[in-house]
């Protein structure tokens, strides 16, 4: 079970995973060594699975950001899954969901024209409902 200090460590690392253990310790009222020990314990217990970076997709040339609710046409999903594996340039996340649809697909595109072609190709395998993301708040 996580205590308040562990939760604060997770909050701080979520905001800046490059923080030094000394800085982290200061923010959560521990020594750097004690903070480092807690982080190792969180990693060993699988609470922290890895570290990542936040990328600005627009600055990389992908200003079109969309979410697609995916509705499979039958119970055989492999054609869709195989298609998605070939689209790693555009697919950010593919979540299997319950509720409205079978999958929730998050994608980025360099242009609306590229998005349009992707949707044409996607529709060979599944139906979808498109949501364009305007801004992240």
Compile the SSE list and pairings.
Layout: H1 4-15, H2 21-28, H3 32-44, E1 64-72, H4 78-85, E2 91-96, E3 103-109, H5 112-122, E4 126-132
Antiparallel strand pairs: 1-3, 1-4, 2-3
Helix pairs in contact: 1-2, 2-3
General description of the model:
This protein has five helices and four strands; from the N terminus they run αααβαββαβ. It has a four-stranded antiparallel beta sheet. The chain is elongated. The chain has two domains: 4-44, Arc Repressor Mutant, subunit A; 64-132, Alpha-Beta Plaits, CATH 3.30.70. Helices cover 38% and strands 21% of the residues. Helix 1 (4-15) crosses helix 2 (21-28). It is α+β, with helices and mostly antiparallel strands.
Can you give me a brief rundown of this structure?
The protein is of the alpha+beta class.
